[in-house]
Amino acid sequence: MILVKTDTVIRNEGMKVLIKHLGKIDAERFISLILREPFDYTKWQKDLWKDKTVKEISEAAMEYRRTDSI
Question: What is the pTM of this model?
Answer without folding.
Answer: 0.52
